[in-house]
Amino acid sequence: MIPFIIRKVLVLIPMLFVISFLIFLGIELMPGDAVDFMIPPDALATISQAELDVLRAELGLDDPFLARYGNWIGQVMKGDFGYSLQSGVSVRDLLAQKLPATIELSLAALVISTLLGSLLGVVSALNKGRLGDHVLTVAGMIGVAIPQFLFGLVMIVLFVFQMELLPVGGRMTPGNEAFFQRLDHLILPAIVLGLSMTAGVMRYSRASMLDSLSKEYIRTARSKGIPEWRVNLIHGLRVAMTPVAVLIGFRLPILIGGSVVIEQVFQWPGVGQMFVAAVRSQNTPVIMMVAFFSVSIVLTASILVDIATALLDPRVKLS
Amino acid sequence: MKQDTIVEVKDLCVNFYTNQRCNRALRNVSFSIRKARTLCIVGESGCGKSVTANSIMQLLPDLGRIESGTITYHGEDETVHIEKLPRNGRKMRSLRGEHIAMIFQDPMTALNPVFSVGYQIEEMIREHLELSRARSSEHAVKLLRDMGVPLPEQRVKEFPHQYSGGMRQRAMIAMAMACAPKVLIADEPTTALDVTIQAQIFELMLALKEEKQMAILLITHDMGVVAEMADDVAVMYMGNIVESGTAEQVMSSPSHPYTRALLDSIPVLGRGKAQNLEPIRGTTPDPYNRPEGCQFEPRCDYATEICRHQMPPEEFVDTSAGDDTPHMVRCFNCKELTHV
Amino acid sequence: MSSKSLQRKMDRLLTLENQGKLRTSTMNRSVRKLSANVLALVGLALFLLILMSSLAAPLISSYEPNAIDLKHRLSPPGEGHLLGTDQIGRDIFTRILYGGRISMFVGLGSAIGAALIGVSLGTYAGYTRGVLDSAVMKLSEIMMSFPQIILVSILVTIAGQSLWNLILIFILTGWPSMYRMTRSQMLSIREQEYIQALQAFGIGSVTISFKHMLPNAIGPIFVNITLSTAMFILQEAALSFLGLGVPLEQATWGNILNVAQDLNILRNAWWVWLPVGVVITLFVMSVNFIGDGLRDAADPTQVG
Ligand SMILES: Nc1ncnc2c1ncn2[C@@H]1O[C@H](COP(=O)(O)OP(=O)(O)OP(=O)(O)O)[C@@H](O)[C@H]1O
Ligand SMILES: [Mg+2]
Fold it and tell me: What number is the ipTM of this complex?
């Protein structure tokens, strides 16, 4: 197990370097540079070109590209992620400040979509061809087709404006900051993000379950005289679980993408919202770190998926 | 019906409903499985051997259905009409495994890959026998040892993929024998194995038959296996049993043109080198577009006009058989044939 | 299927068979299965309806999509404006029709563009394997480890917001999944004997892979193109919402829907955002139905 993980991590490191280089290159290609965005447009007229050049040199913007990349990656490895051009706060502090909110939301959505999606998928598979299966399939199709933010907006209209059940936007009401007091803020975004991902999980787990149920070991299990529920839930489901576990890992990029949109809809103060703001104002250090960070998470998750698969399926060897 | 009949199948018809069509996979099939005897069903691929076996266990796929006929299980103190039981109902389940057990063609796919072999055997034991966890795992180890699996204490914890093909089939048999069933149904149990392993598995089955007085239904497409294993034989073609009887009768005085052709088309072990092999002319018909009369008519060298319009009835060649399985054949021209 | 209705269906088939009325259909199995798939047919009808009405927009509506009418701002549906007007008096219905043209163009164009790159690379590299394959594979791995929306946002900022840039970016981020799908198809087709026979004849890799292998993978490729079209249309909408999509002057479904960010409009002028939202959903759904139908029809392992 341990050597397996070490080997995976060793493959990951060069990959992360390539990705960091690509991100740096991408940011480099963005129009304008830091100085253009640090100075308000009306102030720009009063500042001379010479002063701008000094500022650029101070920020190290005149160094050759590779030198700047080396400089940057060196700092990143020391844990210094640079400073937001907007607020001057260090990106590390920004991430530390925004990350809990995003993790809270994503985790809730992940739990909702995984539990609900695999449950409905299995129910659907066990009722294949019956009315319930058709209803779930069509509902899933609608779920996949509806734009996430539209779903969010409709829910806001319904639950916030029409029924006035839940507060609008944000993560907490000032003064009520304990977890249970902010639960009412979390409910709506978590459900919207969770439900919008449920359909995909459902379709996949239905297919996986049907595949497992069509296998020969199901007939063997029946030939033993054990009850149907054991045949379906012990023999069928246990094998169908592995691909579903893999899917959870592969859904992380979608989850991150989804939370960017949903955080925007619900004004949820997380990394996604910060990213959108950074892109709009070309706040390069923030863009860079969010991109790099999310890729790292995705890649780490893929290692976790490999480990989970190995644990769930005795046929997969770790050597 | 003979005294020692355990499972009696009579006029069994099974249809499959796929492709918006109806496929009459079994048409009036009758045979008996008798105590301490092996009945071999032989026939080409697609003739309905597996469907027959699955019908007895009520394990047909959803799109298949028993249309008519009876399957009767004569237990020690009860007689059960299997065809009337709900597929996965309590009664049917109490027969499966405990009274009639089954092993399959490919032990790799027939065993669940994510459970240990021990778990899969114990599952069977605990379903039917009231044994504690510890006792049933002891029993599983004993079964594996009895079936010739080396180091059973250790192997019981391993997963199917850690077993070799032959060992896997032994494990399957161990599972099937867990509750000492009266009947063992084996659907081509050695097709996925190589020849030496095949011989070992058959040896094991023969020993179990002798020792436990168990009845065996062995499905195969290999005449060599029939010669070696069978006490009784049923030859199947396109959903009909065209000839049946004791192995002796069918193998040495085959009365149906198909049986003859089958025997002529395959080398049989022990028949010597100078075998004149002749493939059967033509191909098996499309099950959706069957001949009207005798199914074998288009390929038969002895066919006459009547064969084209009517399926021959069951006829008994030699009624003086006494306690033996009667020699049955379905052919209009079998009398002429015996003189050829 | 519930066992009773299954039994009834079997009885019906049996009676028909006994009367000798059933024949094995000579129609192509895939076509037959597709035409029996109600959802796929409904999808196709919806798809054609939305496509045709967008194309025929000038015939259906007499308004200009961008004609501003400040006297009739946010007027509700009815009285000359079938679906009302938006905050600067543009006719919503007309904008949905014209917006559909661009949105569908973005979706379909990007999907086809991504397929062209992904499929050709996948076909050739999947057949020859070797250095090209491992390099492209690594690249696709890297690209696919980015959450799509993050990658697209960065690229939009680099390239600037415009219709063509958006399509280009979608193609750039969309080809890896096409590549992987084609490649895996190729890897399995590659093992078939006729390919070895062709190799033995000394036929070149390009001919073998593109002429003899690719046609056998065309089913899954079509399915993938339909499903990607749906995905890109949704992405266009999401990007508009984030303010990173096609410039606002151009009516697209995403741009029309984007207005709903204004809380006032969201609460009080449902006609501005709800109809276009429904149209997007219906369109994406219809494309998915078609894609699923194609997939089932092409799947030889399914009975029917
Ligand atoms: N699951 C099924 N669905 C539809 N038709 C089936 C199914 N299983 C069997 N059949 C049909 O029943 C007939 C007999 O099939 P069966 O599997 O019993 O053949 P077999 O004699 O066991 O052949 P093999 O030696 O290849 O195992 C065939 O015509 C086949 O098409
Ligand atoms: Mg078979």
Answer: 0.88
